[in-house]
């Protein structure tokens, strides 16, 4: 498996250095750094990393605007890594095009897994914000087909959908919910059918309001 190529964007040099050491130790290639949003955009254009690990609150151009410009350039996917989990910041980052959102308190294995997931084209949300994001982004007019489909999900299917939005595998969901892997597969199949989704990622996109049924 090719190592993901990552650009680090954070205004604190010590944090960038710590992230670099940790990621390299786990087989991730760090191709560059940026101390503010403008440099992150410029370096993303020049280096075209698989993933930009983006802080949100930086001097000058902030991480939200930098994320928007990087996604407009279509150079890289953006995984937000921040200390702040305010709903407004989470929504702003996702609306700008970030495909992942983690808090800086995430463990090293969780961060490395998230980088690999984003590099593969999957989305990742920190478990501490997932349910709030889904709750906000699944609010649609009552006549919406997506709203009706989401309402039709059982409580267990909603838990499985939340776990899918975190990028968890069937085995990880089974361990999280304390059910068997075959049972997880049954729930995933039911979620896809009820939402009219073609894949797990499509189901998550529908739940977030980023895709039509």
Keywords for this entry:
alpha/beta, 55% helix, 213 residues, Arc Repressor Mutant, subunit A, Rossmann fold, 2 domains
Q: β content, as a range?
A: 5-15%
CATH topology of the largest domain: Rossmann fold
| Series of secondary-structure elements, N-terminal to C-terminal | EHEHEHEHEHEHHHHHH
The count of β-strands is 6
CATH class of the largest domain: Alpha Beta
Helix content: 55-70%
- Report how far the terminal alpha carbons are from each other: 33 Å
Shape type? globular
In CATH, what is the homologous superfamily of the largest domain? Response regulator
Tally of separate helices: 11
Q: Concise description?
A:
With 213 residues, this protein is an alpha/beta fold. The chain has eleven helices and six strands.
Please characterize this protein's 3D structure.
With 213 residues, the protein is α/β, with parallel strands linked by helices. It has two domains: 5-130, Rossmann fold; 138-208, Arc Repressor Mutant, subunit A. It contains eleven helices and six strands. It has helices spanning 13-25, 37-47, 63-73, 87-96, 108-119, 127-137, 145-151, 155-165, 170-177, 181-195, 200-208; strands spanning 5-9, 29-34, 51-54, 77-82, 100-103, 124-125. It has a six-stranded parallel beta sheet with strand order 2-1-3-4-5-6, sandwiched between helices. The protein starts with a strand and ends in a 5-residue tail after the last helix.
